[in-house]
Every structure is written in C-alpha cells, then in structure tokens.
Amino acid sequence: MVWQLGSLAFGSPIILPSPAETLAALSGLLGSMGFWEAVGATLLRGLAGFLLSALLGMAVGGLAGYSRLARSFVSPFLTVMRSTPVMSVILLALIWFHTDEVPVFVGLLMGFPIVCGNVIEGVHAVDRRLLEMAKAYRVPGPRIVTGIHLPSVFPYLIAGASTALGITWKVVVAAEVLAQPVHAIGSGLALARYRLDTAEVFAWTLVAILLSGASDALLLLVDRRLPWRNRFDGA
To answer: Any residues with CB less than 8 A from the CB of 143 and at least 6 apart, and which?
Structure first.
C-alpha cells in the first residue's frame, strides 16, 4: 500500500513505478527465454562462488583454528578482505578475469572471510573440559572429532554459510552489472537502467531477492535434514 501511494505521489513510472507496473514487467520477463537463461547463469555463478568460498573457508578456518601460527598468518588477510570495498574487488576482477568469471571471483572473495572467521570461532568454542574428559576416558580420536569438535563447529559453520550466501547474491549481481556477461540478472538490470525502464529494474531486483531467499531457505532445509544433525544436537 505504501509502495502504491508513493507511486501515485510521484506520478512518474520512471521515478517509482507502481506494483502493478512492476508485476507487468516481471510477467513480460517470465515469457522470455533470455530471462531464464539469465537467471540460470546467475544461479550457477552464485553457487560456484559460494561453494568455493565455503570449501576454502572451512579448510583455512579449520587450520587456523587449531594452529596458532596459521591463525597469525591468516588473520591479516581476513581483515584486509573484510575492509576492502566491494567495488574495488569488482574493478580489479574486471582487469584480471573474463566477464563470466568476475562474479564468481567476487563471490568467492567476499564469502571466504565470513565462513573462515566463523569456523575459527567454532573451533575456539570447543569445550576444553569435554576434551580433557574424553582423553581421560581414552575415547578414540574419530569419536572425539564427531562427538565434540563437529557439534561445536557446525552451528558456526551454518551461520557463516547463511551470511556468506546472502552476501554472495548481492555481490554477484553487482559484479554482473559492471561486467555485463551475455546472460545475467545484472546485465538485465543494466540494460533496463539504460532504457530508463524502472519497472523492469524493480522486476529484476525482485527476481534477485527471491533467488536469495530461496537459496537461504534451501540451506536451512538441508541443515535440518542432514543425517548427522540429530546426533550433533544430542551430543
């Protein structure tokens, strides 16, 4: 209702199109094959960037969490990555990579420090008293890992992955706007902006929001359905 009232107040679809105009633009996009190719391409780039950042973050975070030397080496890089403006990363990636690879690289670089930092926190959150008890009772090493270490790290990993996934979609679309690959949601946004078609800009933005929300819901669903989750909760 506020959106509709705002559209009426401005009285210009270029400034603020109405919800009906946005839905009409979205309906027009849904009937285009290029739309689905753009969504599919952005989906693949986002997932690639997220998976790479998650895998690298788990590996480096686990190493840094258990090794003080590795943590001292990694910490400055994490600080630099968190502090570097996204636009700087995108512009450098445009120089270094092909347009299709730019969003993947940016997603990797923005998601990695989040996952890595959370994994390090999860390692530090391991209850040392439980470890001492396990050693006193001579619990096998694999059982210590699955019964103590993983239950401690797992919630931090999921929280980090969820945050990284949300940021990944934002930076991937932003990178696509500048890189403008052939098929991409960001390319659709840029083209709509050039035509001053604000309703289509809103439509593409809505698609990006729905894509981010759907992937986040899927991550939570996978988290709840993992076969070892109940064992973690009961550990």
So the answer is: 134
Q: Which phi and psi angles does 15 have, rounded to 5°?
A: -80, -55
* Residue pLDDT, tens place only, 201-211: 999 999 999 98
Residue 193 lies in a domain: yes
C-alpha 123/C-alpha 106 separation (Å) is 27
Q: Is residue 76 part of a domain?
A: yes
HEC string of 166-185?
A: HHHHHHHHHHHHHHCCCCCH
Distances (CA, A) of 37 to 32, 42, 49, 168, 184: 9, 9, 18, 19, 8
CA 58 to mean position of chain CA atoms: 15
pLDDT, tens only, 146-168: 667 777 788 888 888 888 988 99
CATH number, domain containing residue 220: 1.10.3720.10
Q: State the CB neighbour count (10 A cutoff) for residue 130.
A: 17
For residue 231, what are the CA distances in angstroms to 66, 173, 222, 227? 23, 38, 15, 8
pTM (2 d.p.): 0.83
Q: Domain of residue 101: give its range.
A: 42-234
Q: How far lies 204's CA from each of 190, 200, 220, in Å?
A: 10, 6, 25
Domain count of the fold of the chain = 1
97: DSSP letter: S
